[in-house]
Amino acid sequence: MPNVILITTDQQRYDTLGCNGNSFIHTPNLDELAAQGARFERAYCTNPVCTPSRVSIMTGQLPSHHGSYNIGTVAADTSGFLSSVLTDAGYRTHQLGKAHFYPWDTASPETRRPDGMEPFYDFAGFETAELSVGHSDWGVNSHYEKWLEEKGIRKGRHMPQLQVKRLFPNDPYQTGDWGMPVNCHSGAWIVDRAEHFLRDRPKDRPFYLNIGFQDPHHPLAVPEEWPKIPEDTIPDPEGAFDPGLAHLKALSEGRIEEAFGGRYGIAGNQDTVWKDVPLEIRKKVRSYYYSMVELFDRQIGELIALLKKYEVFEDTLLMITSDHGDMLFDHGLGEKGPMAFEEVLRVPLIMGLPGRIRPQTVSEPVSLADLYPTVLDYLGLSAETFCDGISLRPLLEGGAMTRKGVQAEFMEEKDAIRYRCFMTKEWKLAEYPGESFGELYHLTEDPKEQHNLWAEPEYLMIKYELLRQYLQEMQRQEPAAQRPCRC
Predict the structure, then answer these.
(1) Distance between CA atoms of 33 and 391, rounded to whole angstroms?
(2) Omega of the bond prior to 365 within 30 degrees of 0, cis?
(3) pLDDT of 283-309, one tens digit each?
(4) Is residue 33 within 8 Å of residue 350, measured between CB atoms?
(5) Contacts of 78 (CB under 8 A, 6+ apart)
(6) 399-424, pLDDT tens digit by residue?
(7) pTM over cut 0.85
(8) What are phi and psi of 372, to 5 degrees?
């Protein structure tokens, strides 16, 4: 059976790759992988914040089915995780980098202190794990921190490598120049530890390596020595939002907690007044964000070189994606959270398996929940638990999709904002339970989502048909118990 490597970045938009149409960014390694395998134009996360999206990848289920509906929730049952299934199938399984299946700011399997460089054992279905929690200068902890200590970089000693020169006060992205050298960056740690894994793994077993890069999630602390993309080459933020969408108006004005808040803070977006962020900051933020992706591309190049050095590249199912995107001031908004725009739901997805996945561009809408059943299909294994996702293997081998569209969900507490979103080849519909507003975009004619057609009478039948298709898809996904007899 082939090896499996699943790589996730954090908060990376679809438009961050040259192969996805970006003219100002330089991502030669990712572009080459995309040219050699399958590049997906319409891949959607199941939720626009970290934990629920990542648990969906590991289970093939929507948040409403796996239960980890938001940041701060606990993945209580990992027995159906892809890691558990492949461990049981005899794979050598290892988690490296960010996982975020558990809460990050309270006691959890992710926040315990490691014993030196020794990995955690039996973590979320993985045999072993080496973790980092958080992002850039927030993310110097766990096994990554221990690795830095071996290089003489220790917290609490005013180390210049740990200092960030923030460029602006009151910048929600905390953009700045980081004293951390590129060769000590968290991505460099991942590459180094990946080589140890590839070198020391048992050669008589296939392996599953799950890698979580921290970037390009804020804080946008970029190594000072790393070149930044010139701001004048990057387009300014585009578009606005329908002011009738009360949650987006409140979000823009910094009133989201007041208007829609519950017991916990709105995930990914709380007190920032987005409408007041000056253009100077917006341009700099976008430059540093895309520059972080260029650094990730270099690290991917180093990782691919290792796969070839250890002669596993040709026999490895490789998938590269992100858990969700980032608004980056498009539509006048930032970061992530209770929004259904393409900027946060649509993510990069590249998939390769030499000799079995031919070079191609896939235009059909797919879900990150599809990765779980796709992996099992290529390995000849069956899912022991119910999946919302479907295997993409038939599509990659010339077949057609068996569904009308894909779904995304957002849920805060019961007294806070939530939505269910349905994306087809042409349309996007977002329905907000309990609210009078909603969203309907004709993506074919309005890819920037500037014209919300939800309340337009002439689109009533379109809205009805999309809701009907959505209900049909939900019915298909209803799990059923086995029934061996009529009694």
Answers:
(1) 21
(2) no
(3) 999 999 999 999 999 999 999 999 999
(4) yes
(5) 58, 84, 101, 124, 125
(6) 988 899 999 999 988 778 999 999 99
(7) yes
(8) -55, -60
